[in-house]
């Protein structure tokens, strides 16, 4: 009796999941605990940044005290005009500048190592 040419269904699906045609992105499996921790961590960072922004903008009078008017989608405008905060050398203004730019840099610094780790894990599969 000859052995069948095709592998058993279990190993076939495992091989198909790990390798695919070039250019196709492999799915990365995360546990529900890892996803929940990532979401909770990012939500916590966002809440802290929002609280700091509201506090320092209230203390400094940002953006009205600096002559900045914006009605919708103002974050880019705020980032563009944020160097005005550094002109007076007040600690609250410097902290507000740091908080404004932390909204851009903190997620980037958190997500970049995670993406490198996921890409390395994909290469191993």
Topology of helices and strands:
Elements: H1 9-18, H2 32-60, H3 75-81, H4 91-124
Region (Disordered): 1-23
Transmembrane segments: 35-56, 94-114
Keywords: Membrane, Transmembrane, Transmembrane helix
Tell me what the structure shows.
The longest helix has about 35 residues, at about 90-125. This protein has one domain (about 30-125). α2 packs antiparallel against α4 (about 90-125). It is built from four helices and no strands. It has helices at about 10-20, 30-60, 75-80, 90-125. The two termini are about 35 Å apart. With about 120 residues, the chain is an all-alpha fold.
How would you sum up this structure in a few lines?
With 125 residues, the protein is mainly alpha-helical.
Core attributes:
elongated; 125 residues; 4 helices; mainly alpha; transmembrane
User: What's the number of structural domains?
Assistant: 1
Tally of DSSP β-strands: 0
Mean pLDDT: 78
Helix percentage: 55-70%
Strand content: under 5%
Instruction: Report the sheet with the most strands, covering strand number, pairing sense and barrel closure.
Output: none
Region (Disordered): 1-23
Keywords: Membrane, Transmembrane, Transmembrane helix
Biased composition (Pro residues): 1-10
Transmembrane segments: 35-56, 94-114
